[in-house]
Specification:
- This protein is α+β, with helices and mostly antiparallel strands and about 170 residues long.
- The protein has a single domain, classed as STM4215-like.
- The protein is about 20% helix and about 30% strand.
- Strands 1, 2, 3, 4, 5, 6 and 7 form a 7-stranded mixed sheet that branches.
- The longest helix has 18 residues.
- The two termini are about 20 Å apart.
């Protein structure tokens, strides 16, 4: 029977196998840092290596036959400053990009789509993503300027409400 721990382990395995994800983390997204993330491609523990998949369990509801676990999923990457690199959006040099934010948003949206595809109706799992997934773009500048997408994803886990499954004596 699946649980939050099962889903969390499957998310780590997804991040490890996805060639664009370099780190995975869990917990409060306002406290993203080296203490709650795992760098997947390097032993470096001094900083987060982006792109980052970050997940925080939010709530659970228990309709008949299921537990619906709502989690906040953030996919983000570091935005690089391109000033001085003469990158242009057209042949007109008056309009210059100052960073690669659009590229980051495009790449991280694709990673979010990959996650939704991976966890929807997989016959090898007894849980699935249920309902529509809406993502909201964000840009955040603290230690690093990052951009990406945040979505609330609902995992539907079978739950029979069977009293015989309660571990009692």
């Amino acid at each position: 029977m699946s649980s939050w721990v099962t889903i969390k382990n499957d998310l780590i395995a997804f991040a490890q196998s996805h060639l664009q994800i370099n780190a995975v983390g869990f917990g409060d997204p306002l406290a993203i840092g080296t203490d709650n993330t795992i760098n997947l491609r390097t032993a470096d523990r001094d900083r987060v290596i982006y792109p980052l998949l970050f997940v925080d369990a939010q709530s659970a509801s228990m309709p008949m036959g299921a537990t619906n676990l709502s989690v906040s999923v953030l996919v983000m990457d570091r935005v690089a400053d391109l000033r001085g690199l003469d990158a242009t959006i057209s042949g007109d040099v008056r309009y210059r990009w100052t960073d690669n934010e659009d590229e980051v948003l495009s790449d991280t949206l694709r990673i979010m789509q990959d996650l939704v595809a991976e966890f929807t109706d997989d016959p090898d799992r007894d849980y699935t993503i249920t309902g529509a997934v809406s993502a909201t773009r964000f840009v955040e500048a603290r230690d690093d300027k990052v951009a990406g997408w945040q979505a609330t994803v609902v995992f539907e886990i079978p739950f029979s409400r069977n009293v015989c499954q309660i571990p009692t004596t």
